[in-house]
Amino acid sequence: MAWLMTAYFVFIFAAALLASLVFTPLTIRLARRLNWLDQPAPRRTHTQPTPRLGGLPLALAFLLALCLTLALPRSDEHELARVYGLMFGVVLIALVGFIDDVRELKPLPLFAMQFGAAFIAVAAGVRIAQISNPLGGGDIFLPEWLAIALTVFWIVGLMNTVNFLDGLDGLVGGVTLIAGAVLFLHTYKLGQYSIALLPLALSGATLGLLWFNFPPARIFLGAGAYILGFALAVLSIIGGAKVATALLALAIPILDVAWQIFTRVRAGHSPFSADRGHLHHRLYDMKFSTRKIVLLYYSLTALFGALALWLPSPFYKLIALSLIGGGRWRYWRACVVEKKFFNSALCAASWRQTTIQK
């Protein structure tokens, strides 16, 4: 039976990968024929009109692979409902995101899409119903209202985090690929084989798109960033909360977004205002090549993902995340508040950004 399950894992990954490799070039042709292209602009790094419909082939490949997992028997009678919630959420994001990629919707419909997808998942039974007690003695069960609120916050928050990260070719795709692999290994280690198929399907679909999205990109993610954020958020809680693992694997983008929101609010700006304060933008403005920045993010995601798999409990993972966040805070105080190490290029970039925001 072990070899049969292994073959099924390989089949799901290969099906998602192949579907993505087929659907993506077809989407590129369609976008170019209909002139659905993202034009160069001052805040953007590309110099040629490029299709931005990456969410379409990603969603099709991911949904196809998810359909192929439905045949596997489940020990949990409610698991299929949660998988359907994941699928319907992806469909909603893909449809609204397709319109946004073609016509650029205003923020309100996009927020409605995010909360709509989150509530679809919650209605299907995807919830953070319990958390590990850091002091031991078993799990802490949350009241239903708190479980729902925390789940919606987690899903919508990670969707926006991944979308904010989508500033350079191949950045989100590679980070998601690695994070998906971490969730697969974690779930497999727990013996949740039917659940482990889901991040494997996501990784296969993402890898196929990444072939065309790696710099220089032939297609942009577009709404695909929302799909990847939603999928990662749901997959981290669909078979029992693995939020600490996801938080640590995605430590760099999550802390970067949290820090940007803090600095924008501190400067009196909207937390959703556009600027070039994100870490990947600062590195790019310092003349680091796109590939070097992307590979740096890949390396850090793999490093923290491996750490998440190695640490024995959520408590230690959250301690590690706190240490990383504390290091980011000390760095900012040294660079911006106390004006130390100002000769450092990255510190200088931080100081310029803070001055501009003020």
Explained architecture:
The chain is mainly α. The protein has one domain. It is built from 14 helices and 4 strands. It has helices spanning about 1-35, 55-70, 80-105, 105-125, 145-165, 170-190, 195-215, 225-235, 245-250, 250-265, 280-285, 290-310, 315-335, 345-355, and strands at about 35-40, 50, 130, 140. A two-stranded antiparallel sheet has the order 1-2. A two-stranded antiparallel sheet has the order 3-4. Helix 3 (about 80-105) packs antiparallel against helix 4 (about 105-125), helix 6 (about 170-190) packs parallel to helix 8 and helix 6 (about 170-190) runs parallel beside helix 12 (about 290-310). The relative contact order is 0.13. Mean pLDDT is about 85; it is low at about 335-345 and about 350-358.
Write a short abstract of this structure:
The chain has 358 residues and is mainly alpha-helical. The protein has 14 helices and 4 strands. 70% of the residues lie in helices and 3% in strands.
